[in-house]
Write a structure and sequence with these properties.
- The chain is mainly α.
- It is globular, with a radius of gyration of 20 Å.
- The protein starts with 13 loop residues before the first helix and ends in a 5-residue tail after the last helix.
Length: 253
Amino acid sequence: NGVGSVNVAEDADDFTRQSAIASWLMSTPFEVLGGKPMSREQAMGVMGNLIEESYGANPKAIQGDHSLTRWQDCDNDCVAAFSGGGIAVGILQWDGNAGDPRRMNLVKLAREEGKQWYDLSVQLKHIKNELDGIGSHTYENSQIKKSGFLDPGRSVDEYTEMWAKFIERCGTCRMDDRFEAAESFNQAFQGGGSIAGGSISTQCVGAGSIDSSSLVQLALQISYSREEKAAGLGYGVCPKLNNCGDKFSKPEY
């Protein structure tokens, strides 16, 4: 469905979880981005915010709970009972009040998925719903459109600041900390976009050496162009369900 799922072991360290989130951002198609995933620079800007907001981009984070233990006794019903703002939850630290139901919308999605609010895949889907304006999520969609975040070619710092101001809407932003977190993660993260939800995703993140731009170039190198197909090269119908690569692919395949 274009969303995929991200499964991270309970005992995984922060960087492994952060890498999985970054890989998801760089491989998930966003309608607001014209059906494309985030660029590396955009994803790093998001990561700088998430790392600062939720104690290392931790989906179990509840505002003020630095020990990251409160989630153990706080399920969907518990979060739904929170009253007013100032009790943000999850990697994006969704908060809520009468006029801003972001926190409650997360709980609603978790219930629809048959999961708890602290499930990472639920929270990533919630981010996509907000950005793409799915359902009642129209405000964040309008915000990101006017933020400049959709513009290509900006720096990591610029994307970090846009996300903080228009999507995170932080109270005390401490932008220098967000810039530092984004740049530090950018320097450490050697991965790229992969197939969200597939077995390759874990391998790419674990290997830490796959760059999405290289995968694109590889695909172009081994595929026939439209002109070559028009000339009668590499065009045909596969007569069976396997072993067609040698017949219909370029020698580089």
